[in-house]
Design brief:
Blueprint lengths: L2 H9 L3 H14 L5 H30 L1 H8 L6 H19 L4 H29 L9 H25 L10
Helix pairs in contact: 2-3, 3-4, 3-5, 3-7, 5-6, 6-7
């Protein structure tokens, strides 16, 4: 595999972080309050990074199992079918998070984190213990596995803090 192809395949998963981040940043510029801006970020992150990114992985593992096996540096196994449906669960949680409360988003982030952070540890183990430098085992996938649930949790915690913060008194009109 040539260098450009390797870098492109390694970096591709970052699209599921970059597109929602750019979309949220552009849209949040027009927010009327911090609370509204935070809500915009949470919805973009839930739908784009968590939902669509996980749905893409579901489709990729089901429709192109040989390609995915090569991308992660493994032989094709029945386990890949299970990974597809684990990702479908993450996608459903991500889409649910778009209209969820901050408390639910924290739970969704933690639930997704258990799978994705476990996958991150597995990728790192394969990298260092077995020298697996396949583009689907290193690079962008590591960033996604770490950041997608972490950002969901951080945004939701900030949202909870804003919800519980005392609101300024309403202006007095005479």
């Amino acid at each position: 595999m040539d260098t450009f192809s390797y870098v492109a395949q390694s970096a591709f998963p970052l699209v599921w972080i970059l597109v929602p981040a750019i979309g949220a940043a552009v849209r949040a510029r027009h927010a009327r309050s911090r609370r509204e801006a935070l809500d915009i970020w949470q919805r973009w992150w839930a739908i784009g990074a968590f939902g669509i990114g996980s749905l893409w992985m579901t489709i990729a593992f089901l429709a192109f199992p040989d390609t995915m096996a090569t991308a992660i540096g493994f032989d094709r196994t029945p386990f890949m079918f299970e990974i597809a449906f684990a990702n479908l669960g993450l996608a459903i949680m991500g889409f649910r998070a778009a209209s969820a409360s901050a408390r639910e988003r924290i739970t969704i982030g933690l639930g997704g984190g258990m799978f994705l952070w476990g996958a991150l540890i597995g990728h790192l183990y394969q990298w260092f213990a077995n020298g697996d430098h396949a583009p689907g085992n290193t690079g962008g996938v590591l960033v996604n596995d770490l950041l997608i649930p972490a950002v969901m949790i951080i945004l939701a915690v900030r949202s909870r803090r804003l919800e519980s913060a005392p609101r300024p008194p309403a202006p007095v009109t005479v």
